[in-house]
Amino acid sequence: MQADTVLTGGTVVTMDPDRRVIDAGAVAVAGGKIVAIGTAYDLDAQVQATEVIDCEGQIVIPGLIDVHAHAGHGLIKSMGMHGGDRWEDICGEVYTQASPPEFWYAEARLAALERLRFGVTTGVSLLGGGDTIMRTDNPSYAAAHCRGVVDVGTRSMVAVGPTRAPHPRTYADWTSGERSRYDVGFDQQMQTCRTVADAWHDTHAGRIQIAMLYPVLRDEHERDMAPADYAAACQQAQLVRDFARDRGLIFTQDGHWRGSVRRADKLGLLGPQTLLSHCIDLHEDEIALVATSDTKIAHNPSANASIMGRCPAIELMDAGATVALGSDATAPDRSGDMFRHMQQAMHYHRTHFRDASVLPIGKALEMCTIAGARALGLEDRIGSVEVGKLADLTVVDLRRAHLYPPNMPVHRLVCFANGNDVDTVMVGGEIVLRKGRATRVQEAEILDDASAQAAQMIARIGGQGDLELPLDFWGLEGTKT
């Protein structure tokens, strides 16, 4: 057999249905897909390859998958995070008023580089945040994000959608070097989404996928909207969901809690192509609704929402639901390092149940590999090391002090590794990270561009004060916020 590349000598964690772990294993890749898996000894005799990569002392896993994060956050990170709702207010202002396409391009490359360096080959990125402010006044912003991701070489599922009713919402652009404000209604935002889906969905060898989003609507008895606006929002959510269903796109919502899943069910928003994030403090009937409808859940154990309430991820999985891990990155206090989030998830639920056996180690790894692929409707392409699947592979170097001695490699991987231990990353058979360095882009250029765009954004919103240490930063007695 002829192959383009063989990764040989490492421990191969397949995440296939049998959860095979192959010591001194090998993976052969040709035409962007996995063509053979086995022991290094067997494949050495069976396969001729253009390039052979020695993975001895390393572990080969499917590329990690992050099912929930936000485009734009990478240039805001921790700004204003100590000032109550200030961080979210900054996001809202920046994403509508102070973010030209150059901002979205620079941030996309920075976030994609972070994911790449951490072994994350596929990630969901909502084009804005918190749960309401999407940059969908014009297709140019999504296009800039997509170009940035393609430059780096990872995969991104870009979620676009209208803002929550009422409309219009005021946006601004900076094409003339000065702020120019204008109002944008629901119809214009939907046309933007259609244009983005037509131009970008499943393009660049599948590196770009488009998803649709509409903000969460709470149960009608908890609403804080005028009745007419609430009725419009319900209708709009259904229109967005119908468009996603008709186009075969994932439909996602960010921030479900305390009865909102019931409302989503009544509106017909649940189903196999629906991905709901956070999902804290769900009622028992909501757990059943998720499981029976095959709705997917993005669990973000490091997010602020998981401090305010608990996602019943264990109960959801026990009921048969697909639960995958998201970072909710890259702000205000968390990164795209999925190793961190696997470890956080295990401790989060074990602490709740006061039981160290809850969320087994292998299950945590499943949540950001094959379960992540299933949550995105991509399990036939990625998420496991199996013949015929795309060659999205992450190689982690186990020859590190914190990962030694060299035994129990899967335990070392999940419990002790961090994103900086990633050595090599392959996406669709292409090596996009080699020995810890990106191959498609100049990292220094990405960092310099991100710094310049962040500085412009801070100047536009007058946000310099949001960078200062708060009075209670050190937790000293007698300080005030």
Query: Based on the structure given, which CATH architecture of the largest domain is correct?
Result: Alpha-Beta Barrel
- Based on DSSP secondary structure assignment, what is the total number of beta strands? 20
- The CATH class of the largest domain is Alpha Beta
Low-confidence stretches: none
Q: Which homologous superfamily in CATH is the superfamily of the largest domain?
A: Metal-dependent hydrolases
Average the pLDDT over all residues and give the rounded result. 95
Summarize the main sheet.
9 strands, mixed
Radius of gyration: 22 Å
Number of domains: 2
What structural class do helix, strand and pairing data support? alpha/beta
Describe the structure.
It is built from 15 helices and 20 strands. It has 481 residues and is an alpha/beta fold. It folds into two domains: 2-62 and 383-436, Urease, subunit C, domain 1, CATH 2.30.40; 64-375, TIM Barrel. The strands form three sheets. Strands 1, 2, 3, 4, 5, 17, 18, 19 and 20 form a nine-stranded mixed β-sheet that branches. The longest helix is centred in the middle third of the chain and has 21 residues, at 227-247.
Q: What is the element layout, followed by pairings?
A:
Elements (H helix, E strand, L loop, with lengths): L1 E12 L7 E10 L2 E7 H7 L1 E7 L3 E5 L1 E3 L3 E2 L14 H12 L3 H17 L2 E8 L11 H14 L2 E6 L8 E5 L6 E5 L1 H15 L7 E6 L13 H21 L3 E4 L5 H7 L7 E4 L6 H10 L2 E4 L5 H4 L4 H6 L4 E3 L12 H16 L7 H7 L2 H6 L17 E5 L11 H8 L5 E6 L2 E5 L2 E2 L4 H19 L20
Parallel strand pairs: 1-4, 1-5, 6-8, 7-8, 8-9, 9-12, 12-13, 13-14, 14-15, 15-16
Antiparallel strand pairs: 1-2, 2-3, 5-17, 10-11, 17-18, 18-19, 19-20
Helix pairs in contact: 3-4, 3-15, 4-5, 11-12, 12-14
